[in-house]
Specification:
The protein is α+β, with helices and mostly antiparallel strands. Helix content is about 30%, strand content about 15%. It is globular.
C-alpha cells in the first residue's frame, strides 16, 4: 500500500516506534525498522502512506509533529545527520542504525511522566542532583560525563595518532603498528628506568579531526547548504571592487586554471591558519600547543570568520613548538585534501532536494604570523633575504647587533632624484628594483633545496645543517607542494596584517615616546648613523665622562609626551568599538604600556594621526599620518583595485620618507613587508578575511575547554567535539536562545516594538504602510516620551547629558545633507511621538543651538577625539564602521538593516594636516 507513495528520492515516512513518522527512509530500511522497533500504536489511519481520510475524522489523525509526541527539533537534527550518510541507504547497514539507537530512545522518552524533554538549563551540572532529589521518578543522565558521551555520538569525533617523542614521524598508516620511530628508532612508548610502564603510554598524541565529514555537515542541513553557494551569487559585479576573496585575482586565476573545479559552485574553498598558544592561565609555564584551523570561503563575509564556522583540523601537542617539523604533523590533513581534490566525496545537498553530488575541496592559502609562515612555507624569515616576495633581492644591510631592511630607494624609478641623495645611507642608489619571481622561478629554486631529516633528535633531524648559497633562504620544500594545484597558486601564504600593524605601532609609538624598552632610537642606532656618515647632529658625543645622546626631532619632548598621554587618556570610544585605553596610560602620564593587537589597530588608524600633529615637525607628522592612512585604506571592507595600485607606488615614497627620518635600526622586516600588502590585497581580496584576528579569538575558545591541566590536548579535543555537536543542534532551535539567535551586544530587544516601524517611514510607497499613513495623517499624542538612550539597527545612541558620565562615547551623530555635505553634532534629545494604531516615530535632536530634529534612522554614529593642538573645544571627527553591519544586499536581505560602511576610496594617502574633519563644540 505504501510503495506508490514514496517521494522522488525513494523515501517515505517511517511509522516505527522510534521514528514516529518524523524520519524518512527507503522502503527496505522502513521494513527493517518496523520489524525491529515495532509499529506506532496510535497510528490508525495511514495518511502518510496512501489512506484517504475524510474531513470529519482528520482532526483525530495523529500528525508527525503533534499528538502524543510533541515535535522535537532533535528529530530534524538526526534526520539530517542520518540522511547525509551514504551508508544509510544500504539495506545491510545495521551498524549505523545501532549507533543512534540510544539517541532515539532518549528523544522518545519522557523527562517526567507526562512531560516531554523540553528542558534547557544553563546550570546543568549544579541542578542534576537537585532535580533527582526533588523528582524521584525523573529520568535524567547520571552525570555530566554521561551527557557529554551521549552528545559526542552526534559529533564527528577525532582520531588519536601517536607521535615520535622527537617529532620525527607519526605512527600512522604504514607505521601504525611500529614500536619504534622509523627515523630515530626511539621507542613509541614512555619508559621508566629503561622499561615500559605497566600500560603502554605514548610520548605524544596528535588529535586529527577528519575534514570530509565536517564539510558534509555544511550541506546536511538547509540552514547552511544555501550559504555554501553565496560566493557565486554574492561576488562583485564590478571588477574594480573587492569585498570577498572571490573578487580577488588569485581566486579568478584558480578558476581559470581549473575550470572543472569551478563549474560546481558547491566545491569548497578553504583557508588554513596555525598558531601556538599556552593553554594554561599560568604563563610562567612554558608550553606551546598548535591548533590548525580551517575556514570555508564559500560562505558570505559576515559568517566565514565566525567561530561557529571555523573547523579545528589538527591539534599539535606541546610542550615544544613543532618548528621546522610542522610538515610531519600536517600529513593526515594533506592526504585528505589530496583525496578531496582528486576523487571528491559523495555528499547530499539539503539545499537541492538532498540530491547527491561529488563534493571536492581545495586549499586556497594559509594565514599566519610571520614566524609561523616560515614553518609552513619553508622560507626562513630571518637573515639578509628574509622577505619572501623580494626573495634573494631583499634590500637589507647589517647594523650593530641586527639586520636592517633599509634601502627602499631602489624601488624608485631609475631617474628619480632621491636615488642620488646621500641623506639616506651616504651612498648613491644604483641597484635596480627587486625582480618579480614567477611561479616557475620558485619551483626552480625549490629543486635545489636538499631534503632534510625531520625531527629534533640530536643525531638525526636535530643536527644543524648549513644552507648552501644556491638554497637561498629555503629550509625545506613545504608539504603543501604535494597538493596537485599548490604550485600554480599565486598567493600561497598571506602576510598577516594584524601582527604587522601591531609591530609597526609598537616601533613607532615606542620611538616617539622614547620608551626605553621599545624605542628603536638606541645608542647602537646612533652609532650606526656615525658609521654611515650621515646626520651628524644625531651622533653620540662625550661630555666629560658621560656619553651624551642628542635629542632627535622624531622623539616627543617630555612636555609633549605627557600631552600625548593625556590625549590618549581622554579618548572615549563608542560602545563595543575598542577597549578603555586610559588603563594603558601610566599614572604619571609618561608611558603607554600593555597594548594588545586591537589596541594598536585603533591607535594606528584613529589616534596616532590626530595626536602626533604639531607634537613633532610637519615633515615627520605628515609621513606618519600617511602611513596610518594607508592602514585605514587597507583594512576597509570594500577595497578598490585602483586604490591598491596607487598605494603600491605611494608606499615606496612613504618608506623613503621614513628612511630620511628614522635611523636604519628602526627598519625591521615588518616595516619592509608593508610594501607588499597592496599586491597581496589585489590577489586575495579584503584583508579582514585574511588576518589573524578571528583565529586568535578562536584560540581563546579552545583554551576555555581545558579542564584537566595534566592533559590539555585531550580536554580541548573532547570539549570541541561536544561543542561541535551542540553548535549543529543549535541551528534547529528557534524557540529558545542559542548562539545563532542570541541577541547582539546592542540589540533592539523589546524596544523594537516600542519604536514601532521606524524604517517603514522610508518605504511609504509600499502597500503595507497604508495604516501608518493614516496614523501619521492624524495628529500625534500630546504626550511625548523622552529617553536617555536608544538602540537603532544594533547601534547604541546616548544623549550627551547621559554620555558624559560614562566611560564610552555614544552621543556623536552625523547626518548627510541634501547636497552631499555632512552635518555633525551631539545628541541632545531622544523623543518618541505616538500615533494611532500603536505607531510611533523616534526623532533625534542633535543640534547645539537650533531645535532641529532628524529621524533616528537617518543618524550615523561618529565619535570625537580631542585635538590637542587647537584647544579644549576642538574635536576631530572619527566615523564608525560597525562590525555587524554590512553594505552588501543579497536575496532575502533588505538594505534597511544596513548602516554606513567604509571603502578604501574614502581615504587619500597623501594628506594635508589641515584637511581632517573638525568641529568646534562651543
Amino acid at each position: 500500500m505504501a510503495k506508490p507513495h514514496v517521494n522522488d528520492r525513494g523515501f517515505i515516512r517511517c511509522p516505527c516506534n522510534r521514528c514516529i513518522n518524523n524520519a524518512q527512509h527507503q522502503l527496505e530500511v522502513l521494513e527493517t525498522h518496523i520489524h525491529r522497533f515495532g509499529f506506532m500504536s496510535d497510528y490508525n489511519e495511514w495518511i502518510y502512506h496512501g489512506e484517504n481520510v475524510n474531513a470529519a475524522s482528520s482532526s483525530n489523525v495523529p500528525q508527525p509533529n503533534s499528538g502524543v509526541h510533541d515535535r522535537d527539533e532533535m528529530f530534524e537534527v538526526l534526520e539530517d545527520i542520518i540522511s547525509n550518510d551514504a551508508e544509510v541507504d544500504q539495506l545491510g547497514s545495521q551498524s549505523f542504525n545501532v549507533q543512534y539507537d540510544d539517541l532515539f530512545t532518549a528523544l522518545n522518552s519522557e523527562l517526567y511522566p507526562g512531560v516531554m524533554n523540553k528542558w534547557t538549563n544553563k546550570s546543568f551540572d549544579e541542578l542534576l542532583k537537585l532535580l533527582k532529589l526533588a523528582f524521584p521518578k525523573i529520568d535524567l543522565v547520571e552525570s555530566h560525563y554521561e551527557a557529554k558521551r551521549l552528545m559526542t555520538k552526534m559529533g564527528l569525533g577525532y582520531q588519536s595518532i601517536h607521535v615520535c617523542k622527537n617529532d620525527c614521524a607519526l605512527f600512522w598508516n604504514e607505521n601504525s603498528m611500529s614500536e619504534t620511530c622509523p627515523v630515530c628508532f626511539e621507542s613509541r612508548w614512555k619508559m621508566q628506568e629503561g622499561r615500559r610502564t605497566g600500560k603502554n603510554v605514548p610520548h605524544k598524541v596528535l588529535r586529527y579531526f577528519p575534514l570530509a565529514p565536517r564539510l558534509k555537515r555544511l550541506f546536511a542541513t538547509s540552514k547552511t547548504a544555501k550559504l555554501m553557494r553565496w560566493h557565486q551569487a554574492g561576488k562583485s559585479t564590478d571588477d574594480n571592487v573587492m569585498r570577498h576573496p572571490v573578487d580577488g585575482r588569485a581566486w579568478k586565476d584558480f578558476d581559470r586554471k581549473h575550470p572543472e573545479f569551478a563549474d560546481d559552485v558547491r566545491n569548497v574553498r578553504l583557508g588554513l591558519a596555525a598558531d601556538g598558544f599556552n593553554p594554561f592561565n599560568n604563563m610562567s609555564i612554558s608550553y606551546s600547543m598548535w591548533p590548525v584551523v580551517l575556514t570555508t570561503y564559500n560562505l558570505p563575509p559576515w559568517l566565514c570568520m565566525k567561530p561557529e564556522y571555523l573547523m579545528l583540523s589538527i591539534l599539535i601537542p606541546g610542550p615544544q613548538s613543532p618548528g621546522k617539523d610542522m610538515d610531519v604533523f600536517l600529513r593526515p590533513l594533506i592526504e585528505e585534501l589530496k583525496e578531496l581534490w582528486e576523487n571528491g566525496i559523495d555528499t547530499r545537498d539539503a539545499g537541492n532536494d538532498r540530491k547527491v553530488f561529488k563534493m571536492r575541496a581545495a586549499l586556497l592559502w594559509t594565514v599566519n604570523d610571520f614566524p609561523a609562515r616560515s614553518s609552513l612555507s619553508g622560507w626562513s624569515g630571518q637573515g639578509y633575504k628574509a622577505c619572501p616576495t623580494c626573495n634573494e633581492d631583499t634590500p637589507s644591510m647589517r647594523v650593530i647587533g641586527k639586520t636592517a631592511y633599509f634601502g627602499h630607494c631602489r624601488f624608485l624609478p631609475s631617474t628619480h632624484r632621491w636615488r642620488s641623495n646621500l641623506d639616506f645611507d651616504g651612498r648613491t642608489e644604483r641597484k635596480r628594483p627587486p625582480r618579480r619571481f614567477s611561479l616557475v622561478d620558485i619551483m626552480d629554486q625549490l629543486r635545489r633545496v636538499k631534503t632534510s631529516i625531520p625531527g629534533k633528535h640530536p643525531n638525526y633531524g636535530g643536527v644543524k645543517r648549513k644552507r648552501g648559497d644556491d638554497e637561498l633562504n629555503w629550509r625545506k620544500k613545504s608539504i603543501f607542494y604535494e597538493l596537485p594545484y599548490w604550485a600554480e597558486i599565486e598567493l600561497k601564504h598571506n602576510l598577516d596584517v594584524m601582527h604587522i600593524e601591531k609591530n609597526i605601532c609598537d616601533s613607532l609609538l615606542g620611538t616617539l615616546m622614547g620608551d626605553p624598552h621599545k624605542s628603536k632610537d638606541t645608542d647602537n642606532a646612533r652609532r650606526d648613523l656615525q658609521h654611515l656618515g650621515i646626520r651628524s647632529e644625531l651622533h653620540l658625543y662625550e661630555d666629560g665622562n658621560k656619553l651624551m645622546k642628542p635629542a632627535a626631532e622624531y622623539t616627543f619632548s617630555e612636555a609633549n609626551r605627557r600631552k600625548f598621554c593625556r590625549f590618549v587618556r581622554s579618548v572615549k570610544f563608542p560602545d563595543g568599538f575598542a577597549g578603555n585605553l586610559s588603563k594603558n596610560v601610566a599614572h604619571n602620564d609618561s608611558r603607554i604600556v600593555g597594548l594588545k593587537s586591537h589596541d594598536c589597530h585603533v591607535i594606528m588608524q584613529r589616534l596616532l594621526p590626530v595626536g602626533c600633529r604639531y607634537l613633532v615637525n610637519k615633515t615627520i607628522s605628515s609621513t606618519i599620518i600617511e602611513l596610518c592612512t594607508f592602514f585605514n585604506q587597507l583594512c576597509a571592507r570594500t577595497v578598490n583595485v585602483t586604490d591598491m595600485v596607487k598605494a603600491q607606488d605611494q608606499l615606496v615614497i612613504i618608506l623613503c620618507k621614513l628612511e630620511r627620518i628614522f635611523p636604519p635600526a628602526f627598519f625591521d622586516i615588518m616595516i619592509h613587508l608593508v610594501l607588499h600588502l597592496p599586491e597581496e590585497t589585489i590577489l586575495g581580496g579584503p584583508v579582514y578575511m585574511r588576518w589573524m584576528y578571528p583565529f586568535e579569538r578562536y584560540l581563546k575558545r579552545l583554551k576555555d575547554y581545558v579542564r584537566n591541566a595534566a592533559n590539555p590536548e585531550g580536554s580541548i579535543s573532547e570539549g570541541y567535539v561536544v561543542d561541535e555537536a551542540l553548535t549543529f543542534c543549535s541551528r534547529y532551535f528557534d524557540d529558545i536562545e542559542t548562539r545563532f539567535n542570541r541577541p547582539d551586544r546592542n540589540d533592539d530587544g523589546i524596544h523594537r516594538t516600542s519604536r514601532l516601524f521606524i524604517y517603514a517611514m522610508n518605504r511609504v510607497h509600499a502597500p503595507e504602510v497604508t495604516h501608518e499613513l493614516l496614523s501619521l495623517a492624524s495628529k500625534s499624542n500630546i504626550f511625548v516620551s523622552s529617553y536617555p538612550a536608544c538602540i537603532v539597527n544594533g547601534v547604541r545612541f546616548v544623549t550627551h547629558a547621559h554620555d558624559v558620565r560614562l566611560k564610552t562615547q555614544n552621543s556623536g551623530v552625523s547626518v548627510p545633507g541634501t547636497e552631499n555635505e555632512i552635518f555633525y553634532g551631539q545628541l541632545q534629545q531622544i523623543l518618541e511621538f505616538s500615533y494611532l494604531n500603536d505607531f510611533s516615530v523616534v526623532l533625534f535632536n542633535e543640534s547645539y543651538k537650533d531645535d532641529q530634529f532628524i529621524l533616528a534612522s537617518q543618524a550615523q554614529q561618529v565619535f570625537y577625539v580631542e585635538d590637542p593642538s587647537r584647544g579644549p573645544n576642538w574635536r576631530v571627527v572619527q566615523h564608525v564602521n560597525h562590525r555587524s553591519i554590512w553594505n552588501i544586499t543579497e536575496d532575502g536581505m533588505s538594505d534597511i538593516d544596513l548602516l554606513q560602511d567604509n571603502s578604501s576610496s574614502n581615504f587619500t594617502l597623501f594628506v594635508d594636516l589641515g584637511n581632517l574633519p573638525q568641529i568646534n563644540l562651543q
